[in-house]
Amino acid sequence: MWFNSFLFLLYLAAVLAVYHSIPAWRARKAFLLVSSYLFYACWNPPFLTLLFASSSVDYLVGRQLGRVPSPAARRLLVLLSCTTNLGILAFFKYAGFLLDNYDALMRLAGLDLLVVGPPSWLAAIVLPVGISFYTFHGLSYIIDVYAGRKAPVDDFLDFYLFVAFFPQLVAGPILRASQFMRQLVSRRVVRLRDWEVGGFRIVLGLFQKAFMADNLAPLANLVFEQPLAFSAPEQWIGVYAFALQIYFDFAGYSNIAIGTARLLGFEIPDNFNLPYLAVGFRDFWRRWHISLSSWLRDYLYIPLGGSRGGSPMTYRNLVVTMFLGGLWHGATWSFAVWGMLHGVFLMAEHRLDLSLARVPDWIRQSFLWRLAGLFLTFHLTCLAWVFFRLNTSVGDAARMCASLLSSGAGSVPASGFERVVYLKLGFLGFAACWAWERFRGSRRMPDWLCGAAAACMLYLVIVGWGDASEFIYFQF
Question: How far apart are alpha carbons 334 and 392 in whole angstroms?
């Protein structure tokens, strides 16, 4: 049940009608939990047991952490939760990847007798939708309880709803228990402003996905299906198209999730803040997939040592964190390279900051300096996107990057490049998002203008809505 389908809109309307007609708060939460499980079951009903089992382990471990004083016993409880969560994730997402690399390593070492080959059951493994996201929900809760940052949750209904809350269940934003649990304590009152903001975010998300991302996808696909057949400028057009496609696709999902939660009376955090306007990669990761980048920072980078221990340790921690962040997206070396590239970019930025410390502040704060930083950040990000998009072959991605940096000519005509009009619309759409982000905080955008913008976007969604296509981040 994709967010950009008519079926979801009908489902959402039915859920809202019943939810707001239930007077008792606990009964409302129970209905919302059942609705969330039903939503998840629409993808693959058997995996509902996996979601329930994972939630049950974390719920029971969390309660025990609040009762057991022994440090050794508490560490064993955390180990149980981490082993369960990461073990399930590793089996469903990384089993084939790990076995393939084990076999390759054995062959490289000349130990062919130890090669196991692909087992028959491997082809039957289906990746449960959203498993990477709800695994991180549970892990963050257990770690926070263990560290004393969060009290254990005794109400099973609240905890299971926290993990399975359907607006963000399959593709985020990644929730923290400290962000969401306090909203479950008392009855949520949905006011007119919630309906206005929630409805606008849903329309904005549908516009970003159904009109912008889905119309940029054919142009990106045209180039990435046979990238070396095109000239470098044509390849860059395809890369720009994908960069905007993945932004509008994921930001669109996040906006629909945020808007849907708002209609139910809940607030979940923003996941994007105009990442392509970032100056530097620290700035980029404060703007792109904010819930993931902050999760990696708090639960991986800082525990590894963060920026303590001098530059060498900082560089190591950055690369390790981004390497694992890349693998979180998918079980291929291309995703790992994508993550490591961002780690190297962050490392280089840290080193460059030390080298440029003597540059006067008035130069570093000038418009031209920032424009140069924005230009460089955006294009290095685009180069890294090549490994993300060509995620089955590091070699193909590397060859395309080399071609992008050359001046070679393609061997086929650029048929299909009439779609470049959507690339122009994509940049205009990004500018429109900037205007909305710029003025919404100050409330200087009048309601009538928001309404007119929503009407225009809704019209474009209706006339440009083809077959609903899967969101890119659903595969993670």
Answer: 6
- Both tokens of residue 268? 């979940």
Over the Cα atoms of the chain, what is R_g? 23
Give per-residue pLDDT as tens, 448-468.
677 777 787 777 777 766 555
Q: Is residue 6 assigned to a domain?
A: no
Of the chain, the end-to-end C-alpha distance in Å amounts to 16
Helices assigned H by DSSP within 264-332: 281-287, 290-296, 302-304, 311-329
Span of 250-254, 413-417, 472-476 with lowest mean pLDDT:
413-417
Give catalytic residues, as residue numbers. 329
The CB density around residue 468, as the number of other CB atoms within 10 Å, is 17
Pick the last residue of a domain from 154, 189, 224: 189
In percent, how much of the chain has pLDDT > 70? 87
Task: Give the end of a domain, one of 168, 189, 210.
Answer: 189
Q: Give the span between the Cα atoms of 153 and 291, in whole angstroms.
A: 22
- Assess whether 113 and 254 both reside in one domain: no
CA 358 → CA 354, 362, 364, distances in Å?
Answer: 9, 11, 10
> What is the tens place of the pLDDT at every residue in 67-90?
888 888 999 999 999 999 888 888
Cβ atoms within 10 Å, residue 111? 10
Q: In terms of C-beta density within 10 A (0-12 exposed, 13-18 middle, 19 or more buried), how is residue 375 classed? A: exposed
Domain count for the chain = 2
List CB contacts of 218: < 8 A, sequence separation 6 or more.
Answer: 416, 419
Average pLDDT over residues 335-345: 94
* Other beta carbons within 10 Å of 223: 25
**Are 231 and 310 in a shared domain?**
yes
Confidence of residue 441 (pLDDT cuts 50, 70, 90): very low
pTM, full prediction:
0.88
Reported as a pLDDT band with limits 50, 70 and 90, residue 424 is low
Are residues 201 and 185 part of one domain?
no
Residue 61's Cβ-side half-sphere holds a number of Cα atoms within 13 Å equal to 28
442 confidence band (pLDDT: 50, 70, 90): very low
Note whether 304 and 411 are same-domain residues: yes
What is the pLDDT, as a whole number, of residue 419?
59
Tell whether 259 and 286 lie within a shared domain. Answer: yes
Which span out of 93-102, 110-119, 128-137, 244-253 was modeled with the highest average pLDDT? 244-253
Ramachandran quadrant class, 101 (left: phi over 0; alpha: psi -120 to 50; beta: rest): alpha
Identity of the amino acid at 140: S
How long is the chain? Answer: 476
* E strands, 118-233, in order: none
